[in-house]
Design brief:
Blueprint lengths: L9 H8 L6 H10 L1 E5 L4 E3 L7 E7 L2 E7 L2 E8 L4 E2 L2 H4 L8 E4 L3 E7 H10 L3 H25 L2 H11 L9 H8 L3 H13 L1
Antiparallel strand pairs: 1-8, 2-7, 3-6, 3-8, 4-5, 4-7
C-alpha cells in the first residue's frame, strides 16, 4: 500500500471526467474510494473461480484476461495504463468468475471495492451513468474479442492486435501474443514473416 497525494489520482479523475461532470466534492469522494495497490508480475487481480469484488484502474502495468480450456490457457484480452480492469460478468451478479485476470508486469492499480462502488453510485451524481457506460464499453470489447476468436483467421487477429495494441508488442511475451491470436508461438513467427514480406 502507498501513501498517496491527491495528484496521484489525476489520470483516474481525468478518465472519469471525460465521461461525466464532476463537482469538487465528488472528486474528493472518488479520491477516498479508490486505493492504490501494488501487484507483482505474475500475480492475479482475479483468479478463476473467485467472485470479482473490485474494479481496478491501471496506473502502471498490464493485465491479461484468459480462460482455462481443458488445461490450456486461452488469452482473449489485455488492459494497460489508464484503462479499467474487472470481470463485469462476475462483479455485477457477484457470481464466480470463469476467467482469470493476471498481472504481466509489476503494476500499480487503483482499486475500488464492490461496497465502494455502491457508494460511488449513490454519492456521485452521474455515478450510475458512468458505471453503465464503462460496463457497456468493456462488454462490447469482450464480445468483439471473443467473436473475433471464432470468425477471424489467426493472421487477421494478429493484424488487428498490431493495429489496436502496437505499443504492447515490446512489452508482451510472444507466448501471450500467440495465445491471443490463437496459434502456437512458432506459427506466430511464420505469420509475422508473411506480413513482413507483404
Amino acid at each position: 500500500m502507498h501513501n498517496t497525494t491527491n495528484t496521484d489520482h489525476d489520470a483516474l479523475i481525468s478518465s472519469i471526467a471525460r465521461t461525466i461532470k464532476l463537482a469538487p466534492d465528488e472528486i474528493r469522494i472518488i479520491q477516498n474510494l479508490f486505493k492504490l495497490k501494488t501487484f507483482e508480475k505474475g500475480s492475479f487481480f482475479l483468479r478463476e473461480g473467485e467472485v470479482c469484488k473490485q474494479v481496478g484502474f491501471i496506473k502502471k502495468g498490464i493485465v491479461r484476461y484468459y480462460i482455462n480450456n481443458d488445461g490450456e490457457e486461452k488469452t482473449y484480452g489485455f488492459n494497460r495504463e489508464n484503462e479499467f480492469t474487472c470481470n463485469y460478468e462476475s462483479v455485477v451478479p457477484q457470481t464466480p468468475s470463469n476467467q482469470a485476470i493476471q498481472v504481466l508486469e509489476d503494476s500499480e492499480i487503483w482499486v475500488i471495492s464492490n461496497t465502494g462502488l455502491q457508494e460511488f453510485y449513490s454519492k456521485i451524481k452521474e455515478g450510475e451513468r458512468f458505471g453503465r457506460i464503462v460496463i457497456e464499453h468493456v462488454f462490447i470489447q469482450t464480445l468483439k474479442d471473443r467473436n473475433s476468436f471464432y470468425t477471424d483467421s489467426p493472421q487477421l487477429r494478429y493484424e488487428k492486435f498490431i493495429w489496436e495494441h502496437s505499443d504492447l508488442q515490446q512489452r508482451l511475451s510472444q507466448y501471450y501474443i500467440a495465445s491471443f491470436v490463437g496459434v502456437k508461438p512458432q506459427s506466430l513467427s511464420r505469420i509475422r514473416k508473411r506480413i513482413a514480406l507483404q
